[in-house]
Amino acid sequence: GNSVTQMEGPVTLSEEAFLTINCTYTATGYPSLFWYVQYPGEGLQLLLKATKADDKGSNKGFEATYRKETTSFHLEKGSVQVSDSAVYFCALSSKGGSNYKLTFGKGTLLTVNP
Amino acid sequence: KAGVTQTPRYLIKTRGQQVTLSCSPISGHRSVSWYQQTPGQGLQFLFEYFSETQRNKGNFPGRFSGRQFSNSRSEMNVSTLELGDSALYLCATGGQGENGELFFGEGSRLTVL
Q1: Which of B105, B112, B98, B86 is nearest to B34 (CA)?
Q2: Beta strands per DSSP E along A11-85
Q3: Per-residue pLDDT for A9 more than 90?
Q4: Helix/strand/coil percent split, chain B, to 5
Q5: B101 shares contact with chain A (CB less than 8 Å)
Q6: What pLDDT digit, counting tens, does each position of A92-110 carry?
Q7: Which of A33-42, A43-52, B18-27, B91-100 has the lowest mean pLDDT?
Q8: Nearest CA distance, B89 vs chain A (angstrom)
Q9: Is the Cβ pair A51, B4 closer than 8 Å?
């Protein structure tokens, strides 16, 4: 079956530090890959996505590249801000099945200190 | 466009009771999925409905059920509540042209005492 493994953290950084959150996956075929973010007290919001190998998703300074050879989709940001403090989830959906069934990693809590 | 609306936002029940949660999707979205979020297990898929039909189901006991109405609104029901059912229940909706992206509501936080 499908699975997503991401570093669980928590991760604590100072403002303007570089962020990497690792994510690897197991899936049949060629899944679509997503990063969702959950701010305190809120639901999940899509941060970025990639639908095929070598695609790079980007949004709000965050980037992730779909690496089929290493089955990875690591999230990076060059300079984090206090407002980036949240829980980040890596997720996949399998092609061929329902596009609306996502498999999530366990989430990584990021805290950015001023 | 208006977002995904879940009601109620918070509720407290006791063991053995049952609960019904509601989700109103974004206009035009016909797929509604439900997820359970707990600190220990993370986000787990419960089920997905599309055009009033259950299209996918996760690995949860039969106490968890759902349905979708003709206007795409969905409800999920948990019967004979257990302490372990305490969780944030998230509804997510999707539509054609969204490339598989799901739009989440803020969730219903259920506490079972």
Answers
A1: B105
A2: 11-14, 19-21, 23-26, 32-38, 44-50, 56-59, 62-65, 75-77
A3: no
A4: 5, 55, 45
A5: yes
A6: 987 655 566 888 999 999 9
A7: B91-100
A8: 10
A9: no
